[in-house]
Amino acid sequence: MNERGARVLPEIEFVGGGAQEYLFHSYFSPNGRPFDLEGCTASFAVTSVLNRYGEPVISKAMTVVEGDGQTNLLRVVLEPEDTVGLAGKYLYQITVRGEDGKTDPPAQGEMVIHNNIDKRFVMGRA
User: Are 6 and 75 in contact (CB under 8 A)?
Assistant: First the structure.
C-alpha cells in the first residue's frame, strides 16, 4: 500500500518483445490472508502514463491458478507481439470480478518497457 492506503503492485521492467509471464498472489487487506479466487475472473490492462485515461494498449484475461493449496494466484502471459512496439513508462492494473458480478477496486503498478532495437527479428522478418 502507498501512503494514501491504495494497493500498489510491484514495478515491472523489461525489454519489449520478450515473452513475459507474471503471477500475482491475492490477499485480503489488511489481515494478509489468501483470497480465494475460485469462480472469479480477472483482467490485466496496461495504459501509457501519458494517456492514463485512454484505452488500454494491452488488455488480457488472467488465469486463476492454484498455489500452495489455495486458488489465490492470478497468471498473465504477455506474448512478444503484445509489447514489441511499446517503449516507455506505463501503468498496469489488475481487476477481479467475483461470481456476484461485482468488481474489486483495482490495484495498479508501474511498468517500464525498454525499446527493443531489433523489432524485425522479434517479429520473424529478419
Answer: no
Going by C-alpha positions, the residue among 14, 21, 20 that lies closest to residue 86 is 14
Domain membership flag for residue 112: yes
Alpha helices in the chain (DSSP H): 80-83, 119-122
CA dist., res. 16 & res. 78, Å (int): 10
Cα 26 to Cα 70: distance, rounded to the nearest angstrom: 10
**C-alpha to C-alpha distance for 65 and 55, rounded to whole angstroms:** 27
Q: Is residue 29 part of a domain?
A: yes
Cis peptide before 30 (omega within 30 of 0): yes
Query: The domain spanning residue 53 has which CATH number?
Result: 2.60.40.3350
From the first residue on, what is the mean pLDDT of each consecutive set of 10 residues in the chain (126 residues)?
60 95 80 77 94 93 80 91 96 92 87 95 82
Which pTM was predicted?
Answer: 0.84
Residues 79 and 99: beta-carbon distance below 8 Å: no
